[in-house]
User: Which sequence fits this backbone?
């Protein structure tokens, strides 16, 4: 029988130990699933009321998919769970001594705390870039970019000034990892097949796509073969790829690169990396490179009832001395391990250490082209593209979402069209969506 001993967030205290999970991302969702039927009260907190399938955000930004199809309502996901509570709340602080977390709407105490609040766009402290470029980490940010891009084309048809037309139709993408490469490919598709139909009065030769990366090659986390293939595919789309080049300055109108090139562009997409979403209250020495240091059981040092999993966790091992890659499979596998360990805890059994099973990585560059790295084998082209689509489709939360995404993809493929070229909410630079994404 539950009684309202604690009114914080209006969650009743019961005799079961309370596990508070911060973040309904890949790690948080998987953990809540793993805890089902265990004798815990589970409280999930997220600043949004939905889970975001981030790998397809770039398709929302480039008008390929509806935002709803890559998001899953958290309450709906767990509607059959007992002793489960969801609260839409942004966590702002943790008090490890009082075993309590602070949110914008109240405080909540815990018996066990799982920090799974992921990462945010890394601007490396550059305020100008934070204010002037487009990140791609949350659904509303992808929608901002979609609106901005379409607004620019609407303005281009009405602009008598060729320089202004140039500025409105140029895109600079910063970062040559999977996100940068995928967004460049999607913009290449739009330029080639979709936009000329909508804007017959624009000569699309003026639309230029530039991709810059500070490192020596694209897709640095993948094989050299995949990196070379990605470069080849992007060049086929006419993307100007510059490696060993960084963005030196951007005033909102002109981009200056470290090689001295000046590119007029009203759109700069920031895909240069992520860093952990650190919440206030963690003791000194527990955060390294923006991530929370944890042991092989995902425990915070000195606090055996506090865990961090997913992007936010920095677990150093012999094979991964700088922590595991910030990717969805790591987040989900750590959640599965923690779920099993919390089950073992009930029976006073010792915890089992985390072991990462790397199943490979992949990236797609427009239709029919992708690169896949398996642990012992790399391949590219059409088969890789089919594999990419299958894996992504099967990973999306919810059967309905899978159907919607599949039907969109089939439609886009057959018709060379995109169904979502709508400016639903006009983008205003001063209202850029940043919820929780601080510098
Ligand atoms: C554009 C993009 C493309 C990607 N593509 C791939 C890919 O192809 N393959 C792959 O494996 N990985 C990819 N990733 C990485 C992958 O999405 C992450 O590794 C994964 O999401 C990490 O899971 P997580 O649960 O740790 O964090 P997240 O999935 O980011 O979840 C964190 C959750 O915490 C919530 N949250 C954050 N702060 C607070 C707070 N203070 N209070 C309350 N709630 C909070 C957020 O709203 C979010 O729901 C991509 C990432 C991006 C941004």
Assistant:
């Amino acid at each position: 029988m539950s009684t309202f001993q604690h009114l914080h967030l209006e969650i009743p205290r019961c005799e079961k130990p309370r596990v508070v999970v911060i973040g309904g991302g890949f790690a948080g969702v998987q953990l809540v699933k793993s805890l089902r039927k265990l004798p815990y009260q589970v409280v999930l907190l997220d600043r949004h009321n939905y889970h975001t399938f981030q790998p397809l955000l770039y398709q929302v930004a480039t008008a390929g998919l509806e935002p709803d199809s890559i998001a899953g309502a958290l309450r709906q996901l767990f509607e059959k769970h007992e002793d489960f509570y969801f609260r839409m709340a942004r966590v702002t602080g943790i008090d490890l001594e009082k075993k309590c977390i602070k949110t914008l709407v109240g405080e909540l105490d815990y018996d066990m705390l799982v920090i799974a609040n992921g990462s945010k766009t890394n601007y490396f402290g550059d305020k100008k870039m934070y204010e002037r470029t487009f990140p791609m980490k949350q659904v509303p940010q992808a929608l901002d970019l979609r609106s901005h891009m379409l607004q620019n084309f609407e303005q281009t048809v009405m602009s008598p000034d060729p320089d202004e037309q140039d500025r409105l139709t140029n895109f600079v993408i910063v970062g040559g990892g999977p996100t940068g490469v995928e967004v460049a490919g999607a913009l290449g598709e739009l330029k080639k097949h979709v936009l000329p139909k909508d804007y017959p009065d624009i000569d699309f030769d003026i639309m230029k796509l530039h991709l810059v990366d500070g490192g020596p090659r694209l897709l640095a986390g993948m094989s050299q073969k995949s990196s070379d293939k990605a470069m080849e595919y992007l060049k086929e789309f006419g993307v100007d790829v510059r490696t060993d080049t960084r963005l030196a300055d951007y005033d909102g109108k002109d981009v200056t690169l470290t090689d001295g090139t000046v590119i007029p562009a009203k759109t700069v997409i920031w895909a240069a990396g992520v860093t952990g979403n650190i919440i206030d209250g963690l003791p000194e020495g527990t955060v390294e490179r923006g991530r929370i240091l944890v042991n092989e059981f995902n425990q915070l040092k000195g606090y055996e009832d506090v865990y961090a999993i997913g992007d936010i966790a920095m677990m150093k091992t012999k094979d991964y001395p700088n922590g595991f890659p910030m990717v969805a499979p790591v987040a989900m596998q750590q959640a599965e391990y923690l779920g099993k360990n919390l089950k073992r805890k009930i029976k006073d059994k010792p915890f089992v250490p985390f072991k990462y099973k790397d199943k490979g990585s992949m990236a797609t560059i427009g239709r029919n082209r992708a690169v896949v790295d398996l642990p012992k084998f790399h391949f590219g082209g059409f088969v890789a593209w089919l594999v990419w689509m299958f894996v992504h489709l099967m990973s999306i939360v919810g059967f309905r979402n899978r159907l919607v995404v599949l039907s969109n993809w089939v439609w886009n493929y057959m018709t060379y069209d995109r169904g979502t070229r709508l400016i639903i909410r006009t983008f205003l630079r001063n209202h850029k969506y940043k919820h929780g994404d601080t510098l």
